[in-house]
């Protein structure tokens, strides 16, 4: 599976994984983001990626970076796509669905 | 209070302003909150605050409701989000993800009510969220679907009609409510 990591410079001045783009079956890229931070902005970027049919290599043209955000080069990871995405979601602190009851009583 | 806060408050739907008791101070708090949590995005020239400033009345109101509900729920859990830095605030919200989920729900309950009032069309919250984010990843929709906030129904046969109305509310068509 081809992916491309997005990193952010945290308060300790260390680059950390913050999101990623991956290559879908149809060849275009899709963006996985922390919705607690990006919210509707992340959704909007995905609409732009879809409408432009953007490839992984061209993602930085749609989702720009700067001093505190950077895209790494495209990498290929071997394995089951869903397992790879689950691991990347965790590394990027992308929230997974949770029961409200569980959360409120925790 | 800054002029920009007064201007945002003035353009909001008065029904929602009354229901959520939204004040100028709330608008200021929302701007401050977004500047902390979306600090990295703001440096790239994109942010929800910018969208709040630019979108027409009803749609901007839905964004304000989302942020306000999220902030008030964090405050109700003893967190003062404005005193936190970006990293700490992001962690705090991750620890209280129910605040974000409730905010999504309230945002779309408002859109549901507004659309029913203005267009006499009733859409389920799930239908509105699906077309409002229109995102293949459907991150917010998945969070809502897997939460206990309520039964989330997506009306496939109404998606196109809902999409057109949301586009109108965003000012992407001729009408600008």
Element layout with pairings:
The complex is a heterodimer of chains A (106) and B (177).
Chain A: E1 2-9, E2 15-23, E3 29-33, H1 39-52, H2 59-62, E4 69-71, E5 75-76, H3 81-91, H4 100-105
Antiparallel strand pairs in A: 1-2, 1-4, 1-5, 2-3
Chain B: H1 3-11, H2 14-19, H3 24-37, H4 39-42, H5 48-54, H6 57-76, H7 86-95, H8 97-119, H9 125-133, H10 139-145, H11 159-169
Overview of this structure, please?
Chain A has 106 residues and is of the alpha+beta class. Chain A has one domain. Chain A is built from four helices and five strands. In chain A, strands 1, 2, 3, 4 and 5 form a five-stranded antiparallel beta sheet that branches. Chain A is globular. Chain A starts with a strand and ends with a helix. In chain B, 68% of the residues lie in helices and 0% in strands. Chain B contains eleven helices and no strands. Chain B starts with a helix and ends in an 8-residue tail after the last helix. The mean pLDDT of chain B is 94. The chains are: A alpha+beta (106), B mainly alpha (177). The interface between A and B is large, with 38 and 39 residues.
Largest interface: A-B, 38 and 39 residues
Task: Kindly report how far apart the N and C termini of chain B lie.
Answer: 26 Å
**Shape, principal axes of CA atoms of chain A:** globular
- C-alpha-based Rg of chain B, rounded: 16 Å
Q: Report the major sheet of chain B.
A: none
- Report the order of strands and helices of chain B: HHHHHHHHHHH
**How far apart are the termini of chain A?**
36 Å
What radius of gyration of chain A results from the CA coordinates?
A: 14 Å
Q: How would you characterize the largest beta sheet of chain A? A: 5 strands, antiparallel
Tell me the count of domains of chain A.
1
Number of helices of chain B: 11
